Amino acid sequence: MEWKEILIRYGELSTKGRNRHEFTGRLRDNIRYAFADLPKFQIVTERDRMFIRPNDQETMDQLIKRLPSIFGIQSFSPVASCSQDLEDIKQTAINVIGSLDRENKTFKVTVKRSYKPFEMETNELQQFVGSNVLRTFSDLQVQMKKPDINLHVEVRREAVYMMAQVIPGAGGLPIGSNGKSLLMLSGGIDSPVAGYQMLKRGVRLDAIHFYSPPYTSERSKEKVMDLAEKLSRFGASVKLHIIPFTAIQEQIQKQIPENVSMTTTRRMMLKIADLVREETGALAIITGESLGQVASQTLESLTAINAVTNTPILRPLISFDKQDIIEIAQDIETYEVSIRPYEDCCTIFTPASPKTKPKLDKVEYYESFKSFEEMIEEAVSEREIMVFPKKKKQDKFSDLL
Amino acid sequence: MYYFDHSATTKPHKEVLDTFVKVNEEFFANPASLHELGVDANTLLSRARKQVADMLGTEENKVIFTSGGTESNHFAIHGLAKKVQSRGKHIITSSIEHPSVMESIKQLELQGFEVDYLPVNKKGIISIDELKSKLRKDTILVSIMHINNELGSIQPIAEISHLVHQNSRAFVHVDAVQSFGKYPVSFTLLGADVLTLTGHKFNGLKGTGIVAWKDHVSFEPTIVGGGQEFGLRSGTVPVAQAVAFAKAMRLSFENQPTMLTKYEKWNSQLRQLMSHLKDVLVVSGEDAAAHILTISVRNLKGEVLVNALQSKDIIVSTSSACSSKQTKSSHVIQAIGVSDDYKKGVIRISLGTSNDNQQIDYFIEHFSAIIKRIKGE
Question: Measured between CB atoms, which of A219, A342, A397 is closest to B44?
Fold first, then answer.
C-alpha cells in the first residue's frame, strides 16, 4: 500500500484559543527535531489539522512508526491518493481496507466531493466504493453509526484522497509549550516515568542526579546517562546535572542519627536541586515519588523533606500503583535500563529501619549542629553537566563488526 | 583444491577469524558481569545484535544468538508452538525441509500436534493452492524453507507469507540457512514472522546461528537457566561467536549482489555442460537458486562420482551432507520423484565465495572425461 501523506489531529491543542499558533508552531518544530535524521519532508499546518508529506515510502514508514511517540498529537491517519479514474478509485479503496485488520469489523464509506465536475454524485460514489469493498471483503458488516472502519474518500481537483485507519497518538501537549522543570533522576524505575509524564504535558526537562563515588560505580552513572538519553528521544533535548554527593553523604552518616539520616539526605538533595533549578531557570522540581511506596514517601516524610523549599514540587506519580508505573516504564523503554543492578546513592546508605514518620523539628534540630550550606554550594558548583541526545562517541568496536 | 560444497559449509573469512580472536583476547568477560569488562562485552554484544537486526529489518530485542541452524530451527518451532498452543495445535510444513525442521516437527507430532506435510512438484516447489486448502482456524505455524539445501529450489515465500497472514492467525517460520548471502533475505522481502540463519554457510564460524523475529511473536524458552538472551536461551553468551557472526553476516550481505551475478553466470555455464552430456540429468529445476546445481548420472552411485571427482581435486557432495551418509536416497529426492535409474547417482555442486572463473573452467574441462572414465566408455 502506498501512502501519500499523513493527516495529524491535534486533539487538546485545538481548544487553546488564541495561543493556538504557539502550540501548533511548537508541534511542527518538535516534529522537525524528532525526525531530523530522515530526508526532508513538507509540513502544512492548518487550523484543526496538520499534513506531513514525505517524498518517499521509506520515510513514510518511519513516520508512521515513530509518530505515536510525539506529544501533542491526538491521532493520525496515513492517506492514500489516486486519480479520478473509477477503476483506480476502486483499487485504492480495496488496498486501503486490505491493509487493515478486518476481523469482525463494521464498516462505512464517507464521501466528500469538493471537486464538483467529478462524474458521480456523492451518494453514487459512496455506493460504488462501498459495494466494491464489500465484494472483496465479505467479512465486513455495514454499519452507519459508529463503524469500526470509516473509509473517508475525498474528491479534490488534483486527486482523490482516501484514509481509513486512525492511529492513536501520544496525546498531551507539545514539549516546550509548558516551560522547563528539573527532574530528580535516581536511576530507579519511577523517576524516568515521572519525567515522561511531565514531558507529555509539554514540560521541557533538565535532570539532576546525585553521584557518590566510590560507593556507587561509574556504571550507575552511565545508567542515569542512558535514562537521560531515553528521555531525550521524546522530541526535546535533556540537560543532565551530575552532583558529586559523597562528601555530604559521609557528613550525614557522621552527624545525623541513623533512623532519620534518610530524611536529611533527601532534604539536602532537594536543597541542591533547588539551587540548580534557580540557576537554570527551571520553574518546578519533578520527582518520581509515589505515596507510601517507601519510607521516604509517606506524607510525614514528604512534609519533612518538602520543608526546605517553596518551589512547586510536581509528583506526577503520587497516586500511581507500582505496577502501573512499571507498565509505562516498559512502554517508554526505560525499564530495561532502570533494572540494571547497579547501586545508586539512595540504596547504598539506606538505614536498616528508617523512620516512616520523621518529625520535622527533630530533623532540623539534628541538622543544626553542622552547617551543610557550604558543602551544598560546593557540590552545586562542581557539578558535571551533559546534554542529551549525545553525539556519537569514538567507536572502539567498529573494526570488530 | 576445487571446492564446490559450499552448501555443506564454507571456510571462514580471515576477517571473521580475526574478529573472533580479537574479541576473545580483549573482550573475554561474561557480558552479564557488573564490572567494566563485563559491561564492555555486553555493549559489544548489543552492537552485534543490532547489526544483525538491522540487516534483517527487525529490532535488536528480537534476535537471539544460538549454536547454529539446527538449534535455531528447533527453538523457532518448539518455542513458538509451545507458546501459542492454546490457540491451536496444527502445523504445516513442506516435505523437503531440512532434518532439523522435519524432526523438530515430528517430535511435536508425537506430543499431540497435528501436522500437514505439503508435497512438492518436480522442481521441488510447494503449491500455494494446496497450502491454502490446508490452512485451518487452529493452524499456528507454517514452517517453509526459503532455498532447499539439496535442490536449490526457491519457495515463493513472500506469496506464502501473504496467503498465510490473510487467511489465518498462523506464524510463518522461514529457514533461510541456504539463502542468506546468496539471495536478498529480510523480513520486508519475505514477509515472514521468524527467520533462522547459521553463520558457517556464509564464511562465518560453525557453532554460530541466530533466530530473529518480528513484533507479536513470542516463544517459550527451550533451554532454561540464568535467563540470558531475554530469558529465551540461557547459558553464558559467547560474545566472540556472536560478533563473528555479525561480521560474517555483514560481509556476506554487502557482497551478495556481486556474488549472485557470478553464481548466475557459472550456473548457466555448468548447465550448458550438463545438457551436452549423455546420461546426465539436471535434477535442480531451471529456476532453482544459482548457487546450487544438483545433477544425477544414470545408473551410477553418487559416492563413486564424488570419489572420482576428488581424484582430480574437485570436491562435491552427494545431496546434502546431513543425508549423505545414509544409504537410501534422501527424502528430498524421493519427494520430487526422480526416476529409479537416476535416484542413486545424485550429486550436488554448490558454489560459494571461494570459487572463481578459472575454477569453473577447470571443472568443465575435467568433468566429462571423469564421467566417461567411470562409465567405462
Answer: A397
pLDDT digits (tens, 9 = 90+) for B83-102: 999 999 999 999 999 999 99
d(Cα B283, Cα B280) in Å, to the nearest integer?
9
| Rounded Cα–Cα distance for residues A177 and B250 (Å) | 44
Grid cell, residue A117, equals 465536475
Residues of B in Cβ contact (< 8 Å) with A397: 43-44, 47
pLDDT band at B374 (very low <50, low <70, confident <90, very high): confident
pLDDT tens for A192-212 read 999 999 999 999 999 999 999
Q: How far apart are CA A62 and CA B302, in angstroms?
A: 52
Out of B322, B364, B370, B374, the active site residue is B322
| Contact A214/B at CB under 8 A | no
Spatial separation of the C-alpha atoms in residues A272 and A248, rounded to whole Å: 11
Compare CB distances from A401 to B34, B36, B47 and report the shortest one's residue: B47
Q: How far from chain centre, in Å, is Cα A94?
A: 35
Chain B contacts in chain A segment 333-352 (CB below 8 A): 341-342
- Whether omega for the bond prior to residue B221 falls within 30 degrees of 0, making it cis, is no
- CATH code linked to domain B14-252: 3.40.640.10
- Which chain A residues have a beta carbon less than 8 Å from that of B22? 400
Give chain A positions within 8 Å (CB) of B205: none
Lowest-confidence range among A31-35, B118-122, B215-219, B350-354? A31-35
CB B123 within 8 A of CB B287: yes
**ipTM beyond cut 0.95:** no
What is the nearest CA distance from B247 to chain A, expressed in angstroms? 5
Domain boundaries, chain B: 2-7+255-370, 14-252
* Residue B17: alpha-carbon gap to chain centroid: 22
Superfamily of domain B2-7+255-370 in CATH is: Aspartate Aminotransferase, domain 1 (3.90.1150.10)
Which chain A residue has the Cα nearest residue B43?
A397
Burial readout A192-219 (b: 16 or more C-beta within 10 A, e: otherwise): bbbbbbbbbbbbbbbbbbbbbeebbbeb
Integer angstrom CA distances of residue B83 from A327, B77, B80, B221, B324: 22, 10, 5, 9, 34
- The full set of domains in chain A, from first to last, is 5-170 (3.30.2130.30), 180-388 (3.40.50.620)
- Half-sphere exposure of residue B212: CA atoms within 13 angstroms, side-chain side: 28
pLDDT per residue as tens digits for the range A232-248? 888 788 999 999 999 99
Chains A–B, number of C-beta pairs less than 8 Å apart: 25
